[in-house]
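Before drawing any conclusions, I looked closely at one protein, both as residues and as discrete backbone shape codes, quoted below without any editing:
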Amino acid sequence: MKIRSDILRTYQSIHTWTGITTGLVLFIAFYAGSLTLFKPQITQWATPSSAYLNHTPAIELDNLITQAMEEFPEVNEGFIVNLEQGASSLSWYEKGGGRGLRLDDELKHAAFDQNTNLVTQVSDQNKLGALIDKLHRTAGIPGTLGHEDIGVLILGVAAGLYFIALISGVIILLPTLVKYLLALRTHKGNKRFWLDSHNVVGVLSLPFHIIIAWTAFVFAFHDPFYGGLTVVYGDKPLFAQQEKSEITHSISELHSIETYINKANAIAPEHQVSRLEFSKLSSTSPTLAIQLASSGRIQRGAYSDVLYLHPYTLEQGYTSISQPEDGIFGPMVNSFVSLHFGNYAGNYGRWMYFALGLMGAFLFYSGNLLWLEKRRQKQAIQSRSIRIMSSLTIGICVGSMLGVAITMLASKWLYFLSLPINHYYLGCYYSIFFIALGYSFYRGAALAAIHLLYVLAAACLLIPLTSILFSTLSTATLAFDGNTAIVDVIAFIFAIVFFSAAKKAKYRAYHGEPDSIWAITTTTSNNAIAPVPQSAN
């Protein structure tokens, strides 16, 4: 297929600048997003089993709730029933609660001991998985604008530009798509290898990237979209609103847990109840949020659907499960959301999205490398703009991964030292990220890439070693669930990958092309971001 050269140059320029302006934040979003696919497993891995009490059989739950209400008045306001193994069956918020991400939430857990006596304990609610998810949605950019995270809005804009980069990239490849699609020409230099790798990953995962680009854009701006509809509908509400009740019910009117489960099963027979969260029980607007899991089915949430019931009347409220009265709109929206989360194919879909997410991160990283290779000059010291972009690329990409790895590594030690885990998570991630970024500018991209990759490999290796160390200790506080070993296995694989990448970066630095931003010489190591000497003419 032939395309005029001026058209190709136009689209190449569009592709280059949309990619280079968004690549670094999208790298963080994709890397963290791939980890977020296993958010429950990461949270479970980071939380010691001692943070929970023994699971209570379903037949004893009603008696447990009754005793807890009699002894702890706050239970009468709301409580959580967890039906999943490995977690406390009954808990309630001692501090915090409600919607949103809060780092100081404390849960009190309750259970029966062997003599059917009520026992309780208080523990922080581990937010490691939620913080990685926040990193995925905001790229670690702090601050809010109104009720929206600034990082979410920036990533929404980046997603729109990202879509433009995808389309323009395909147009650039059309003339040589068939001939060079699967070609990896290693014998034609590093630039050609990175270009071929970039093209292969981009084309083969194109449907996935189009889905993520559009869904991320809609997620970021759905509130402004709905707000704009007021121009059409005026004061008329867009969604049906329930009438406010003035009736206050008695806590004694609550039904048995089995009744709620049977009601949920009747509404969603193909789902399983995993969690029931009661709130505002003493008010005129009590709610019961029931989380429903169904492996391998389209779900509105990342890990489950939700069903709201009135805890006293059992009247059904909002549900994310498609209902017949939703018509075609409900299933269409659910499918759209599910395409972003990858939950429609069960564990197989999650692993597929995990791999595609990492490939997406590689796509943005390799795009930056291509930009640097194309603009480098045949001289020992590259231009200032090249050195700044190379330091940003290494500092942000490797720094964000290193921040996540060391934060995960620190999680079990924070429990061991009895420190406020969630606040230390934030300090740990941002301190490591900015140290890595500063080091990249101080020592230059070539040297920083080698050192940071070695440190990253060591951090990933220490994650499973720390798990093994704690699992051999007899103290209950340090006993961790072996069912989450997949986190340690992935960390070990990452350690091998990053160690190999560090060795390759080191070889290229000392034995590769001397006129390169990745070559290490006495001049480049001592003048990381120094001005380029002007030639005397």
User: Anything to note?
Assistant: The mean pLDDT is 84. The first strand starts at residue 79 and ends at 82.
